[in-house]
TrEMBL record:
Superkingdom, taxonomy of origin: Bacteria
Residues forming coiled coils: 58-106
Protein name: Fimbrial assembly protein
Record region (Disordered): 137-158, 270-295
Species of provenance: Oscillatoriales cyanobacterium SpSt-418
Family matches, as Pfam families: PilN
Membrane-spanning parts: 37-58
Assigned keywords, A-Z: Coiled coil, Membrane, Transmembrane, Transmembrane helix
Length: 295
C-alpha cells in the first residue's frame, strides 16, 4: 500500500526560507554574492595599471626635463658668450674713456707758447726790450717744504711751470711796470711773479756805424761815435697759472691758440674733461626778500 505524506506546513510562507536554506546548502553561489570578487579583481588590475601609467608619465616627464635642460644649457652657453663679449666691450669703452680723460687732462695742462708770447707782447711797456724767454724749473721751497699737492682744478700732481724773462729796460720803473703787467695776465699766477735781478750797465755802448754796400767805411773818432745810454739788465721769473685750459678757452682764443681751443671744444662737446658747475653761493649777510601781503 502506498502512503502519501502530505505536509501542509510547506504551503505556509514563514517556512519558505528554510526551504531556500536547505536548497542553498547543496547548490551554487548566488549571483549577488560574486560582486566583492569582481571588485577585488578590478582593484587588483587597476593598481598595476596605475603604476604603469605613473611610470610612463614619469619617464615622459624626465625626457621632457632632459630636453629642457639641454636647451637651457645651450642658452646659458650663448648668454655666457654674450656676457664675455659685453665685458670685453665694457673694458674697451673704459679704456677709451680713460685715454680720452688722460688726453683732456694733458690739454688742460698745456699752456701754448703762441698764446704766452702774444700775451707777453701785449704787456711789454714801450721802454722795455725782451731778449730771451725760457722755461725753468720750479724754485725749491725754502725750509724743505713738500712738493705741491694736487689742487681741485688740476687733479694730477704736476709741478707748476715757470718762465724766466730776460731783457733790457730804460730805467727801473719800466722793470716794475713789466712785473705789474705780468701779474695781471690771466695766464700767469700773479703771486708767482718775482724780479730776480735788475742792474744798470757798467758803461755806455757805442753804436756801430751804418755800412752801405759798395761804400767805403769811414773811420770815426771817439768824439764822432754815438754812444747808447746805460740800460737796465733785468731778469723776471713768472709762474704760469694752474687753472685748466678748458676754463680759459676765450682767453686762449683771443691770444691766437686756435688749435688748442678747437681740441678743447671738441672734447667738451663729447663730454670729456668738463669741469662740474659749482653751485652758486649766496653772499654772506644777504637776506631773502619776502613778498608783501596785500592789505
Amino acid at each position: 500500500m502506498y502512503s502519501l505524506d502530505v505536509n501542509f506546513l510547506n504551503d505556509r510562507p514563514e517556512y519558505k526560507p528554510d526551504v531556500a536554506k536547505r536548497s542553498g546548502r547543496g547548490g551554487g553561489v548566488a549571483i549577488g554574492g560574486r560582486r566583492p570578487l569582481w571588485i577585488g579583481l578590478g582593484v587588483g588590475l587597476l593598481l598595476p595599471l596605475l603604476t604603469l601609467a605613473s611610470l610612463l608619465f614619469l619617464q615622459n616627464s624626465n625626457n621632457a626635463l632632459r630636453e629642457d635642460s639641454a636647451e637651457l644649457d645651450s642658452q646659458l652657453q650663448e648668454l655666457q658668450k654674450q656676457e664675455a663679449e659685453l665685458k670685453r666691450l665694457e673694458a674697451d669703452v673704459k679704456q677709451a674713456k680713460d685715454e680720452a680723460t688722460a688726453l683732456a687732462t694733458v690739454f688742460n695742462q698745456v699752456k701754448p707758447w703762441s698764446a704766452l708770447m702774444q700775451d707777453l707782447r701785449d704787456r711789454i711797456p714801450p721802454n722795455v726790450q725782451i731778449t730771451s724767454v725760457k722755461q725753468v724749473a720750479a724754485p725749491t721751497p725754502t725750509g724743505g717744504g713738500a712738493s705741491p699737492s694736487p689742487s681741485p682744478k688740476s687733479p694730477t700732481a704736476v709741478p707748476p711751470t715757470y718762465l724766466e724773462i730776460i731783457g733790457k729796460a730804460k730805467d727801473f720803473n719800466d722793470v716794475n711796470d713789466l712785473a705789474l703787467m705780468l701779474e695781471r695776465s690771466p695766464l700767469v699766477d700773479g703771486k708767482a711773479v718775482q724780479i730776480l735781478g735788475a742792474k744798470r750797465e757798467a758803461q755806455e755802448r757805442p753804436l756801430a756805424p751804418l755800412t752801405l754796400p759798395n761804400q767805403p767805411q769811414q773811420a770815426q773818432t771817439p768824439d764822432q761815435q754815438v754812444r747808447l745810454p746805460k740800460l737796465i739788465d733785468f731778469s723776471i721769473r713768472a709762474g704760469l697759472t694752474e687753472m685748466p685750459a678748458s676754463e680759459m678757452v676765450d682767453v686762449l682764443n683771443a691770444k691766437g691758440a686756435k688749435g688748442l681751443v678747437t681740441r678743447l671744444r671738441v672734447l667738451q662737446q663729447k663730454g670729456v674733461g668738463q669741469t662740474p658747475a659749482k653751485p652758486q653761493q649766496k653772499p654772506a649777510g644777504a637776506q631773502t626778500a619776502e613778498p608783501k601781503k596785500a592789505n
